[in-house]
Amino acid sequence: MGTRIEVLWKQALKTFSGRKSTGYKLCLKNFEKLRCLINEITAEDVYVDRKVLDFVRIQPAPMCVIDVFENHDIAISVFILKTGVTLPMHDHPEMHGLLKVISGVVKIDSYTIESESDKVLEQDKLIPAVKHPPVIVRPSDSACVLTPLVRNLHEITCLEGPCAFLDILSPPYDTNTLGEGKRPCTFFKEAISDEMSDAVQLVVTDVPPTFYSRSIKYLGQPLRRS
């Protein structure tokens, strides 16, 4: 049957393979099974142990990234943030995603843009959005889900760390969209907020110069089709 990460990987392929094909439609039954499987994943399943976390702790980079698998349909990665570090608010253009915390504690602020498309790239333009209530997420909690239109933007802060979370995105950022090249990862910040409601105005911004990441090697067996 394989390890838990192998079972998860195969289900992710089954759920998202062929999404570039004409007429592709996400099977909600497959997606729900994928969500259930990722909820079972632990740090040990992706070889994130105390040595890895201690290594991240002494790195100058605020975040480390472990690439587990990527093809044209899915990307599976582990992100590790130091305590107090915030992964700035960013989007996932036309993507579905699942995020499972496997170590530490994070706070996630999610946003839904109030437009027909999440491809908002104009600088200095106010973008109306809904800010969802922040959630505190631990390894015992279920995976967080984003879709192309709902909760597509998020900001993640490490409250207790280093924290690690497993991410599945489909399609990956490196997959072309509409013949225009790689999907851009756009960063945002709140420009206007209303304390009496969940309505906010966002603007496109640059990545903070102090935020960057370092890649580290995945210590498990490579995931390959048989």
TrEMBL record:
Q: For this UniProt record, give its keywords in alphabetical order, as a comma-separated list.
A: Iron, Metal-binding, Oxidoreductase
Q: Which is one GO molecular function term here?
A: oxidoreductase activity, acting on single donors with incorporation of molecular oxygen, incorporation of two atoms of oxygen
- Indicate yes or no for the key word Iron: yes
Q: One short Pfam family name for this protein?
A: PCO_ADO
Domain of life assignment: Eukaryota
Q: Does the keyword Mitochondrion apply?
A: no
The record's annotation in InterPro entries points to: PCO/ADO, RmlC-like_jellyroll, RmlC_Cupin_sf
List the GO terms this entry assigns under cellular component, sorted alphabetically. mitochondrion
Family matches, as PANTHER family: 2-AMINOETHANETHIOL DIOXYGENASE (PTHR22966)
The protein depicted here goes by the name 2-aminoethanethiol dioxygenase
Lineage per the UniProt record: Eukaryota, Metazoa, Ecdysozoa, Arthropoda, Hexapoda
Q: Which gene underlies this protein?
A: 100123227
